[in-house]
Write a structure and sequence with these properties.
Helices cover about 40% and strands about 20% of the residues. With about 260 residues, the protein is an alpha/beta fold. Strand 4 (about 155-160), helix 7 (about 165-175) and strand 5 form a beta-alpha-beta unit.
C-alpha cells in the first residue's frame, strides 16, 4: 500500500521534530554540560583558566565607567589577576587609571554546606592585596549604604559567592550601582549546585534589568560533584551605543608589524 501524501507529510514532521529535539539536547550539553560529564573528560580537555576569563572581563569593562567589585575573594588569587590586568591596562589606557578594586569576603569560609564542601571551608587569613580595598565581613553586614556611596558606580562585578543567599545579597546591593554596559561575571553559574544562576534569574525578574549573555566558559567542578561547572559573563544592555574597548598599544603595534610582513 502506497503512503498517501498526508502520511508522508506526517513522517517528515516527525523526523523534523526528532532532529530539533536532538539539536536541542546537543546544544544543552555543549552549553551547560550534563550530569557526571566531568568524570568522563577530566584531564582530557582544556578549559580556559579563570585568569583567562577574568582578563577578558577586565578588557571588556575598560570603556565602562565605574569600579571593579569582587564578591568572594578567598586568598586573593582572582583579585590579583584583576589588579594586574588593570595595572597593565592603565599604562596604555588612561581611563583605567581611575578604576578602584574592592574585594569583599568574610574570610571565615562557607557559612553552610555547599556542593559537598563542609561549613567553614575556604576559611583563610585576610590576604595582603596592595592597591585593593578589602571589605571584610558577611555581605549582609559589610555591603551597606556607606560603601555604596563610596563606590558610586560599578563597571565589572566578579561574583564568586557560591551560595544563593550570598549571591542574592550581593546582586541586590549592586542594583543601583549598575549602569549602561556594566558586566557581571559569575564563577559558578551552572553545575551540580546552580545557586548563582537561580539567584541571578530571580534578581532579573525582580529588578527588570535587561542583560545579555556574552559568553559561557566550561570549568572544572567547584566542589566534589562529578559534573562540570560553568562561568558566565553578562552585560547590562545600554540605552545608547557603547564604545568598544580598543586594543592596547602593544597589541596594536604587534598587529601592524605582522600585517606589514
Amino acid at each position: 500500500m502506497n503512503p498517501s501524501p498526508r502520511d508522508g507529510t506526517s513522517g517528515e514532521a516527525t523526523t523534523s521534530r526528532r532532529d530539533t529535539d536532538r539539536r536541542s539536547a546537543a546544544r544543552q550539553e555543549w552549553a551547560w554540560g550534563s550530569e557526571g560529564d566531568w568524570a568522563k573528560v577530566s584531564r582530557r580537555i582544556t578549559y580556559p583558566s579563570r585568569a583567562d576569563v577574568l582578563a577578558l572581563a577586565v578588557h571588556l569593562s575598560r570603556p565602562v565607567p565605574g569600579h571593579v567589585m569582587e564578591f568572594g575573594s578567598w586568598r586573593g588569587h582572582s583579585t590579583r589577576v584583576i589588579r594586574d590586568e588593570l595595572w597593565r591596562s592603565a599604562i596604555w589606557d588612561r581611563s583605567a587609571r581611575h578604576k578602584r578594586i574592592y574585594a569583599c569576603d568574610s574570610f571565615r569560609g562557607l557559612p553552610t554546606v555547599y556542593d559537598g564542601l563542609p561549613e567553614g571551608n575556604f576559611a583563610t587569613a585576610v590576604p595582603t592585596l596592595h592597591g585593593v580595598r578589602i571589605v571584610e565581613g558577611y555581605f549582609e553586614d559589610s555591603l551597606d549604604e556607606k560603601l555604596a556611596q563610596e563606590v558610586g558606580r560599578v563597571s565589572l562585578a566578579h561574583l564568586d559567592a557560591d551560595l544563593y543567599d550570598s549571591t542574592q545579597v550581593a546582586l541586590d546591593w549592586l542594583t543601583p550601582l549598575l549602569g549602561d554596559g556594566s558586566l557581571l561575571l559569575f564563577d559558578e553559574f551552572a553545575g551540580a549546585e546552580p545557586a548563582e544562576e537561580e539567584a541571578f534569574l530571580l534578581w532579573m525578574e525582580r529588578t527588570g534589568i535587561e542583560t545579555r549573555l556574552l559568553a559561557i566558559f566550561g570549568r572544572e567542578p567547584s566542589g566534589r560533584a562529578p559534573t562540570s561547572d560553568r562561568r558566565a559573563l553578562f552585560q547590562v544592555v545600554a540605552r545608547e551605543e557603547l564604545p568598544s574597548p580598543r586594543p592596547l598599544w602593544p597589541a596594536r603595534v604587534r598587529r601592524r608589524l605582522l600585517a606589514s610582513r
